[in-house]
Fold:
Amino acid sequence: MNATLQALREKGFAGASARTIAGFAGVNPGLIFYYFKSLDELLLEALRESSADRLERYRADANAVRAPSELVALLRRIYAEDVESGHIRVVCEMVAGSVARPELGRRVMAELEPWVTLAADAVERSLEGSPVRSFVDPRELALGGVTFYLGANLVTHLGEGPEALDRLMASAERAAGLLELLGVGR
Structure:
C-alpha cells in the first residue's frame, strides 16, 4: 500500500503502473496481480486504507465541532495536513484518473462518501439552534466542502500557490466567526 501511495504521489495516476508500484515496493510486478484482480483494485485499496486511517484520526475532532468557525478551522487543518502528507495528491490523482472511467469514478466517490457524512454531521451540529439551519441542507454544504477541498488543490497547482489558499481559509474563518456573532450557529 505504501508503494502504491508513493507512486500516486510521485508519478500521478497515469504513472502509477504495476511496474512502477512494484519497483517502489521492491517486488515482482506479478505479485500485484496475485493479490489484486486489477491495478484499479490496488489503487482503490490504497485510497481506502489511507482515507480510513485519516477518517479515524479526525473523527473525534469533527464530532467536537459546535460552531461554523470551528468547522472551518478543522477543514483548514485537515487540508494543511493532507497537503503535507501528500494525501490530497493521492485523492486528486484518483479523481483525475477516473474522469474517463465512470465505474472507477463511482468507486472513488464511494470512498469519499464517509467524509461527506462526517462533514454533514459537523455542519448539522454547528448550525443547531440557528434559524439558518432551516434554509440549508447539511449534506449539500458538506459536499460543497469536499468539492472545495478538491478544487483548492487544483487551483494551488495551477499557479495561485498555497499562500493564496491559506489566505482564503483565514478569511473563511473570520467570516464564520462574524456569522456566529450575528447568531448563525452557536
Q: What stands out?
A: The chain has a mean pLDDT of 90.
